[in-house]
Specification:
The complex is a heterodimer. Chain A is mostly beta strands. Chain A is built from no helices and eleven strands. By secondary structure, chain B is mostly beta strands. In chain B, the strands form two sheets. In chain B, strands 2, 4, 5, 6, 9, 10 and 11 form a seven-stranded mixed sheet that branches. In chain B, strands 1-3-8-7 form a four-stranded antiparallel sheet, with no helix packed on it. The chains are: A mainly beta, B mainly beta.
């Protein structure tokens, strides 16, 4: 099936630093989504992207739908301790029926106070 | 304002037993999904449903059965549990087709 390559696998940063992570695919995607998962909880939707080139913000989070439609990026500015968690990208590839999302492996973010 | 709930949150069962995991959503979303989350595999789709009485297989459906007699409920049954089905199971739902909202998960251990 489809695969998404998410990087980095983990990040250790100081509070206040900016964070960048990305997701790439070998095929074209029609939708990109970014989720955050806290320990013991389900993933929570952060940002949804539907158009190539689209740049969308949600507070300190900014995500972009890559021009090639094969990648997406998530940036977190001025990180705080509550940003700790696992961040997942997800997408629906061209030709895939609605509802069938593919998920990346996740980026584990640790923020040191 | 419960949103989407799952029960039980934790379950331990023995190999060969039948287990049913429950999922309930209060949004009247048409689409509902079941995923399993395992280290090294991320989230994988087991089954999904576009509406009551309409279900379809996902990536890893073997050993699982679903039903959807009511829009708000989407139970997942393991007919004869195996150790390989030890996992964390998430239910999700959506009205806007690609923006899925997840429940808190059920941690299932098969001994």
């Amino acid at each position: 099936g489809q695969q998404l390559n998410q990087s980095p696998q983990s990040m250790f940063i100081q509070e206040g630093e900016d964070v960048s992570m990305n997701c790439t695919s070998s095929s074209i995607f029609n939708t990109w989504l970014w989720y955050k998962q806290d320990p013991g909880e389900g993933p929570v939707l952060l940002i949804a992207l539907y158009k190539a080139g689209e740049l969308t913000s949600n507070g300190r989070l900014t995500a972009q739908f890559g021009i090639t439609r094969k990648d997406s990026f998530l940036n977190i500015s001025a990180s705080i301790p509550s940003d700790v968690g696992i961040y997942f990208c997800a997408g629906r590839s061209g030709g895939t029926s609605y509802g069938k999302l593919t998920f990346g492996q996740g980026t584990i973010l640790t923020v040191h106070p | 304002d419960a949103g989407i709930t799952q029960s039980p949150r934790y379950k331990i069962t023995e190999t060969g037993r039948q287990v049913t995991l429950m999922c309930h959503q209060t949004w009247s979303h048409s689409y509902m999904f079941w995923y399993r989350q395992d280290l090294g595999h991320g989230l994988r789709l087991i089954y999904y449903s576009a509406a009551a009485d309409i279900t379809d297989k996902g990536e890893v459906p073997d050993g699982y059965v679903v039903s959807r007699s009511k829009t708000e409920n989407f139970p997942l049954t393991l007919e004869s549990a195996t150790r390989s089905q030890t996992s964390v199971y998430f239910c999700a739902s959506t009205a806007v087709l690609d923006e899925q909202y997840f429940g808190p998960g059920t941690r299932l251990t098969v001994t």
